[in-house]
Amino acid sequence: MNPGLSTDPAVLVLEDGSRYPGRAYGARGTTLGEVVFATGMTGYQETLTDPSYAGQIVLQTAPHIGNTGMNTEDTESRRIWVSGYIVRDPSRVVSNWRAEESLDDALVADGVVGISGIDTRSVTRRIRSSGSMRGGIFSGDAVDIDPEEQLRIVQEAPEMSGRNLSAEVSVAAAEVTPARGERIGNLAVLDLGVKQATIENLADRGFDVHVLPQDVTIDDIRAIDPVAVFYSNGPGDPAASDDHVELLRAVLDDRLPFFGICFGNQLLGRALGFGTYKLPFGHRGINQPVMDRTTGRVEITAHNHGFAVDAPLDGATESPSGYGRVEVSHVGLNDQVVEGLRALDIPAFSVQYHPEAAAGPHDANYLFDRFRDMVLAARSGADQKDND
C-alpha cells in the first residue's frame, strides 16, 4: 500500500466537538481513546509498541512519519498498542535497509485505525489549551456516520481517569530472561506494560529477569527468591491499581530493594502514602528536561505519562505510610512535576520516565547501574548482619 497517496476519507472527532477531516491511514473502521501528543522526532516504532500507550490515540507532532518503516528487531513488545494513530504526512516510501515492512502495513496488520493529512499542529495546540480529551477516528464505512452520532460515540467512551489497563497488557504467564555477565540473582519484574529494552538492560546488569503477570501475589514473588523487585511502566490511572499498591507495600515490608519506572513510580508514591493526579496533557516524547537532584545534572529524557505523584518538592518528608524519610530525587524543569522518588530509610527509588529509551536519549541509562549497586549494597549489608 502507498500510504502517502491514500485518498480514502477519514475524520478525527474530539469530545469538545472539534472535527478534523483527513485521509485514512492504517486499518479502516472506528477507534476511540484519549488523544495525546508525542513530541519525538524519531522512535515512532518504540512509541507504537510501548504498552503504556494502550487506550490512547497518539498524535505525532513531527510532521513526517514512517520513512524508516518497521522491523522486528526494534519492537518493544509483542504488538502495536496505541488505540489510534494521527500523523500529518506519512512517508510515501520506506528508506531504511533494516525495514521489513511499511508502517502503514504494520498498522493494518494490528488493526490500528489511523488518520493522516490533518493539521496536527492545530490539534496539538487545542490539547495544550484544553487538556487531553477523548477522541475518535472514523474511516471506511464509519466516516459516513452522522456527525452528531460520531460525537455522541466519542463522548460516551470511557475516560482515562479511573481505568485499570494492566490486565490488558501484562503477560499471562511468567517469562524468564537469563542474566548476562556476572549473575546477581533473580529479579521479580511486575509486568504492568514492560518494554523489551527494560528487560535487556536489567539482564545486562546481572539479573535473571522474571517477568511476572500483574496479578501475582507476594507469595508468588517470594517463591522465586528474588534479590529485588521492579515495577514497570504501563497504562492507566494509578488510583485504580490498589492491589498493586498493597503488593508493593508487602515488598517494602520485606525490605526487598525496589526500582520502579513510570507507572511504577506512581505506584511507589501511592505505596509510600502520597497521592497522584492527572496532568492536563501529560509528558510524552524524547526531549523532556529533568534534573537529577543527587548530581545536579540535567538530563534529556523520554516520557509517556498522564499522571504524576503529589509529593513535597523540597527536602525530605516522612512517608505517610510509615516507611521513613522520602525525597523527590528528580524534577521536571518544564513544569516542576515530580519525576523521581527516593526512600532514605529503605532500599527503594523510582523515576517517572524511561531510562531504557531505545531510540534515545540515553542520558538516564545510569539508573540501571544505580539499581544494581543498591541491590549489591543491600546484599552486602544482609551478609554482614548474618555474620554478626
UniProtKB/TrEMBL annotation:
L-glutamine binds at residues 52, 234, 236, 263, 266, 304, 306-307. This is Carbamoyl phosphate synthase small chain. It catalyses: hydrogencarbonate + L-glutamine + 2 ATP + H2O = carbamoyl phosphate + L-glutamate + 2 ADP + phosphate + 2 H(+); L-glutamine + H2O = L-glutamate + NH4(+). It comes from Microbacterium lushaniae. Belongs to the CarA family. Gene3D superfamilies: 3.40.50.880, Carbamoyl-phosphate synthase small subunit, N-terminal domain. Its EC number is 6.3.5.5. The active site is at residues 262, 354, 356. Small subunit of the glutamine-dependent carbamoyl phosphate synthetase (CPSase). CPSase catalyzes the formation of carbamoyl phosphate from the ammonia moiety of glutamine, carbonate, and phosphate donated by ATP, constituting the first step of 2 biosynthetic pathways, one leading to arginine and/or urea and the other to pyrimidine nucleotides. The small subunit (glutamine amidotransferase) binds and cleaves glutamine to supply the large subunit with the substrate ammonia.
